[in-house]
Design a protein that fits this description.
- By secondary structure, the protein is mostly helical.
- It is built from 16 helices and no strands.
- It has a domain of 87 residues.
- It starts with a helix and ends with a helix.
Length: 248
């Protein structure tokens, strides 16, 4: 399937009413985080279904979609990159990872980051940047510098990539990357970072409550309220109240 055919299919499924709702939901107005983003009104399941049919699209053509001003085209491109990363050998994975990091300015909304960062950046760094898929141990010499640079970026979306990339480690029982990036972002000013960090803490707690609580007890008073609320959402009520009231 060519890029021209893909774009034709996307526009055949376009829904102006849904596009209007999406523009509001993803905050595309003046001075909002998604300012100027363009939607044609597709659902995520529609885009995912098309991605399955476009499997195997070249990286060159996928990159063309990723640079599109249309949000759904960029979402499709990212879903295709995730598929290609999973299917590819080490060389393909490295090329996708490098393309992804060169293209962060096009990952300009939270859904685009959330569907891709763990599966590409997280997966690549979790492998130590090596060609083998079998390595799943965190490699500080490769992963730490990249995640730190992203977490210190002026770009909201690169900072969110840093947080969400650590989800790949969390799912493998490796919590150090998440805790380290969280420390860097404790004083971040943006609500979307507060939510992302809190969410990752919650995921750590699902797997190892003591790891989450050890961090919280040291740092919870410095956390933005939204970050804390997300982090403690699954804790027993008496613990949630103690953290919220600052009595721990």
């Amino acid at each position: 399937m060519t890029v021209t055919n893909i774009r034709r299919e996307l526009r055949q499924m376009a829904n102006p009413d849904r596009a209007r709702i999406s523009r509001s939901f993803f905050k595309t107005g003046p001075d909002e985080y998604g300012e100027g983003d363009q939607f044609i009104g597709l659902t995520v399941p529609q885009v995912r279904a098309l991605a399955k049919r476009c499997r195997g699209l070249s990286l060159r053509d996928t990159s063309r979609l990723l640079r599109s001003p249309i949000h759904e085209e960029r979402l499709l491109a990212l879903l295709l990159l995730v598929q290609a990363y999973r299917d590819g050998d080490g060389d393909v994975q490295r090329r996708i990872y490098e393309l992804y990091l060169r293209s962060t300015k096009f990952l300009n909304n939270w859904d685009l980051v959330d569907c891709s960062a763990e599966h590409i950046v997280g997966a690549f760094l979790c492998s130590g940047g090596c060609l083998s898929r079998s390595r799943s141990q965190y490699a500080p010499e490769t992963g730490a510098a990249t995640l730190t640079a992203l977490a210190r970026s002026k770009s909201l979306w690169e900072r969110r990539i840093a947080v969400l990339a650590t989800f790949h480690f969390i799912k493998r029982g490796e919590f150090a990357p998440t805790l380290r990036i969280a420390r860097l972002l404790l004083r971040d000013e943006h609500d979307l970072i507060h939510k992302a960090v809190g969410w990752m803490f919650r995921e750590v707690g699902k797997r190892d409550l003591s790891a989450e609580e050890n961090f919280l007890r040291r740092h919870y008073r410095r956390m933005p309220r939204t970050m804390l609320r997300y982090a403690i959402e699954r804790l027993p009520n008496h613990l949630r109240q103690a953290y919220l009231q600052g009595t721990i």
